[in-house]
Amino acid sequence: MPFDVDVVRKDFPILAREVHGVPLVYLDSANTSQKPQVVLDTLSEFYANHNANVARAVHTLGSEATNAFERARDKVAAFINAPNRDEVVFTKNSSEALNLVAYCLSNATTTPGAERFRVGPGDEIVVTEMEHHSNIVPWQLLAQRTGATFRWLPIDTDGNSAGRLVDTAIDEVITERTKVVAFVHQSNALGTINPVARIVARARQVGALTVVDASQSAPHLPLDVQALGADFVAFTGHKLYGPTGVGVLWGRYELLAELPPFLGGGEMIETVDMTGTTFAAPPHRFEAGTPMIAQAVGLGAAIDYVSALGMTEIAAREHQLVEHALAGLATVDGLRIIGPATSLDRGATISFTIKGVHPHDVAQLLDEDGIAVRAGHHCARPVCVRYGIPATTRASFGVYTTTDEIDALVRGVDRVKAMFS
Question: In what residue span(s) does the Aminotransferase class V domain sit (predicted)?
Answer without folding.
Answer: 25-409
